[in-house]
Specification:
The complex is a heterodimer of chains A (250) and B (357). Chain A is of the alpha/beta class. Chain A is built from ten helices and seven strands. Chain B is α/β, with parallel strands linked by helices and 357 residues long. The chains are: A alpha/beta (250), B alpha/beta (357). Bound molecules: thiamine diphosphate and iron/sulfur cluster.
Chain lengths: 250, 357
């Protein structure tokens, strides 16, 4: 039998620990494929954040630093400023990046740091057991919004991609989803493009990936993926929101 | 050691110059009085040596940028004062857990809260007893002159690398602002050994490496914590620094650090001139604390007077160190004004008279 798809060399052989139907595994794979594509596995430094993705160091065959909750883009800034010929990326959830780490991400983006940020938005805090995130949709129930998110009390679900696209600093800002094959293909392309930006020394790239958390949404894997398509994408539209062709090289 | 031209600098500038001469080419920080001369000096002079100064958006970002830089093995520093140091404590704890070396300067100010910018020693507890979460320590150096600020900055980097930990240089507005002649020098080794086996540089030709502080597997956390504790014990055995003066025949020994020790020295000289047998113990490291030396001296000295610019912090460590028969008096001021040598002298005289009764 002919093997058509291989496990990316940038991933280890270890099986993912993620819950069935979780999209983190797909996103891991897409990032690893991009590292393989640019042949940068041995010159890449990953910054792990706090959340279900913290164990990415078990799955990526690269050097990794673990950052405090929300601070990944500041940690990445420090690393990249020293090793400016390496590829440095962060991988952060919505609790990490859009709540506690809002200041760090806005300023890293605004400085146009030559790093790549993969932002996995599953509209909930996965690791800590399903509390409300800044991206939790209006009306969505979570353990800390048991009656549904109410904007009078909790504000609106925050659109990080649109916010960052409004800044002068970033070079590429995009939102993708991995809910269906066509979207996975687009996500693969845009994630690769984000790393291309960095490899070409063109500054800050940011990809938000809409993602399912079946466990904390209380849905089956199929239902959870459908929820991404039916409820998340209408509020968090997909696409490239900013792309600079001419970039001030750092 | 190549000797360099004598310079006349503010204490803050002496620290910055020492750091650059020690090969620290990365500085991340956020402005706060009374230490702004450090970032300003770095912003001006780091580009001249091919280094990089970056003004972060907050102290939280500064300390985390340092974390990312320290993992690559370069010498890196930041500086701040009370309110900023409070924000950095999260990062201090991660530096301890991740076992990364770097230097932090706290030119402390009076608090709590926004407080005031004058000299104080109110951050002693925060520096030596924690502040961040977990069972960790920093090496804490407490210089008392401009030259010592210079020398201990370099020493601070070396100790940080020896133990893979943070070194905190704790001073105040007096030390940061006072202008003194400095004899600069360059250490033999600038920057750490590039072949250390933990550096995060990209896994070229070797297995991937990981810097982390999360230990969930059975028994892993305890193992990690014991290893950290062993390191702290080793610091106490190998790297305590202390200045002692005239303790051999002393009936009273003053214990003071930093700018308070500087003031106390004047008062002690006067006391000696008047025939009083008064000595001095000046800790230069307050973590590791010179407890054993104090304990030894307390075998022959009946009375101690601890002087601090706070309402009693280091005095607790002195009380824990002295032998059971020794009395420990305390003189403290909460910050807001600086005690004069006369005021210290009066307090010395009082304690001295008491120990002769
Ligand atoms: C300072 C701090 N506050 C809180 C936590 C607890 N915590 C761990 S993960 C997490 C939420 C993570 O959610 P998200 O970033 O959305 O990632 P997910 O688990 O959903 O992938 C929180 C609040 C922490 N580790 N540190
Ligand atoms: S809790 Fe949610 S985000 Fe975490 S692994 Fe499970 S499905 Fe994925």
């Amino acid at each position: 039998m002919k093997q058509v798809v291989k496990r990316p060399a940038s991933l280890t052989d270890k099986a993912f620990h993620f819950c069935p139907g979780c999209h983190h595994g797909i996103v891991h794979r897409l990032v690893a494929e991009a590292l393989d594509h640019f042949n940068v596995r041995e010159s890449t430094i990953g910054v792990a954040s706090v959340g279900c993705s913290v164990f990415l160091y078990d799955y990526f065959a690269i050097d990794v630093i673990e950052a405090p909750h929300g601070r990944a883009s500041a940690v990445a800034t420090g690393t990249k400023r020293v090793l400016d010929d390496r590829v440095v990326f962060t991988y952060q959830g919505d609790g990490d990046l859009a709540a506690i780490g809002t200041a760090e991400i806005i300023h890293a983006a605004n400085r146009g740091e030559n790093i790549t940020v993969i932002f996995v938005n599953n509209s909930i805090y996965g690791m800590t057991g399903g509390q409300m995130a800044p991206t939790t949709l209006l009306g969505q129930r979570s353990t800390t919004s048991p009656y549904g998110r109410d904007y009078h009390r909790d504000g609106y679900p925050i659109k990080m991609t649109e916010m960052l696209a409004a800044l002068e600093g970033p070079s590429l800002v995009a939102r993708v989803a991995v809910d269906k094959p066509a979207n996975v293909k687009k996500a693969r392309k845009i994630i690769r493009q984000a790393f291309q930006m960095q490899v070409d020394n063109k500054g800050f790239s940011f990809v938000e990936v809409l993602s399912a958390c079946p466990t904390n949404w209380g849905l089956s894997p199929q239902e959870a993926t459908k929820r991404v398509s039916d409820e998340m994408i209408p509020y968090f539209p997909l696409g490239i929101f900013k792309q600079k062709d001419v970039v001030d090289v750092l | 050691m190549p000797a360099l031209k004598k310079v006349f600098l503010k204490g803050n500038e002496a620290i910055a110059l020492a750091a650059i001469n020690a090969g620290c080419h990365y500085y991340f920080g956020y402005p706060i009085t009374p230490q702004n001369e450090i970032p300003e000096y770095m912003a001006k002079h780091l580009p001249e040596v091919g280094g990089e100064f970056l003004q972060a958006e907050s102290e939280i970002a500064s300390i985390n940028m340092m974390l990312g830089a320290a993992a690559t093995g370069v010498r890196v520093m930041t500086s701040s004062s009370g309110p900023g140091i409070s924000l950095m404590q999260e990062g201090f704890s991660y530096f301890a857990g991740n076992e990364l070396p770097a230097l932090v300067v706290n030119m402390s100010r009076q608090g709590p809260g926004l407080g005031g910018i004058n000299a104080t020693q109110g951050d002693y507890f925060q520096a030596v007893k924690g502040g961040g979460h977990g069972d960790y320590h920093l090496i804490v150096l407490v210089p008392h002159t401009g030259q010592e600020l210079y020398d201990l900055t370099i020493k601070g980097f070396e100790l940080a690398e020896k133990y893979r930990c943070l070194t905190l240089l704790l001073g105040d507005a007096i030390l940061g602002q006072i202008k003194e002649p400095i004899d600069p020098w360059k250490p033999e080794q600038v920057g750490g050994d590039p072949d250390r086996d933990w550096l995060i540089t990209g896994a070229k030709g070797r297995p991937p490496r990981l810097i982390k502080s999360l230990y969930l597997a059975d028994g892993e956390m305890e193992k990690h914590n014991w290893r950290l504790q062993k390191k702290y014990q080793r610091m106490a055995a190998e790297d305590v620094m202390v200045e002692t003066r005239d303790t051999d025949d002393a009936k009273l020994v003053v214990v003071a650090f930093g700018s308070m020790a500087r003031i106390a020295k004047t008062a002690i000289v006067r006391a000696r001139e008047q025939g009083m047998q008064v000595g001095l113990i000046r800790p230069i490291t307050v973590f590791p604390f010179p407890g054993e030396i104090i304990s030894m001296i307390s075998e022959s000295v009946p009375r101690f007077l601890v002087c601090e610019m706070n309402t009693g912090q280091m005095v607790e460590d002195v009380r824990l160190s002295v032998s059971r028969n020794a009395t420990v008096d305390f003189y403290g001021r909460p910050g807001g004004s600086v005690p004069t040598p006369e005021e210290i002298f009066d307090r010395i005289k009082e304690a001295y008279d008491a120990c002769r009764q």
